[in-house]
């Protein structure tokens, strides 16, 4: 394993589900941003943030890290991951070729390209043993992790109820696009680990990954010259809704809105983790920043599963365009643009990222959201996240449930190794 030093604290970023959709768009955006001396996404974009000129004199290019990046594509399908890696190298080469030469910008981007490593590690978030193995592989190969981006997600959508769709559109087009109730989901899908499938892939799998990598994440603050803590980005949704019974359905096997409920659980858990930051770490005690992000509403494979015909796909695009023109700020047609909020949360100084916002007279937790104007210009906004009034401690309870289950899997693995 390479030895870390303060002079070699390059960014080491893990992105789950990096081979397609928003994950791929985020990888593409990070490569373009980091190949620039001063990445535009590192600049303040929020009214609540500290002005750029007052961020302790910080400019991203003054980071001790040399041009370069280790980007780990954490994917279930190795072949698709290899195709994604080749495509990302190609996109970056195209971007650099468009920079005038000779110039300082081109020289910097070319050096970044020479120092770039796109690594592939296989992991299946629906299989806890796979995640534990992934954690061991990463720990053996890398001295620290600077960012963990929990992006991958699944759903069990089966079809569209067009009667409900028509009724929702008649009542409110903006509500129909923001909180669609016409996308029908399968109920009771169980994973190979005998857990709720959507819950395991979207919530528990990423929690296990976080716990496995926590020592490496904690080390980043030690090796970083600017003493910046590692960051974990939890990918949520603008459609996150707590539509489940927390007393007997926390694995989301009974609700018919398991996808929305899983994203709501991510909101609540991230809020609790960010407020406590006291989960034990075996090797070092260091702050790890937990940030909540969402790509807004953008065409992905999850949406494509509902639309089997080309005509329906065109109709969906027309529907999205109409909703954006009449005022919805959440619709982005490019996964590259949809990654703007996550990219900003990765690159911006922490003092530019508010830890709370005021919403309707109450203090709320910020969910950094990709937004756009009517003409498609992307920006970063904030969607306030409030405590669940009926269950204000649900985030902490979910963490306790996940931790108990995580320890159970750890003990079972240790027992199996001893028996073998």
Automatic annotation (TrEMBL):
UniProt pathway annotation: Steroid biosynthesis; zymosterol biosynthesis; zymosterol from lanosterol: step 5/6
Gene Ontology annotations of biological process type: steroid biosynthetic process
Organism for this UniProt entry: Fibroporia radiculosa
Database matches in Gene3D superfamilies: NAD(P)-binding Rossmann-like Domain
Family to which the UniProt record says this protein belongs: Belongs to the short-chain dehydrogenases/reductases (SDR) family. ERG27 subfamily.
Upper taxonomic lineage: Eukaryota, Fungi, Dikarya, Basidiomycota, Agaricomycotina
Protein name per its UniProtKB record: 3beta-hydroxysteroid 3-dehydrogenase
InterPro entries: Ergosterol_Biosynth_ERG27, NAD(P)-bd_dom_sf, SDR_fam
Claim: Methyltransferase is one of the keywords in the record: no
Keywords, sorted A to Z: Lipid biosynthesis, Lipid metabolism, NADP, Oxidoreductase, Steroid biosynthesis
GO CC field: endoplasmic reticulum membrane; lipid droplet; mitochondrial outer membrane
Enzyme Commission number(s) from the entry: 1.1.1.270
Domain of life of the native organism: Eukaryota
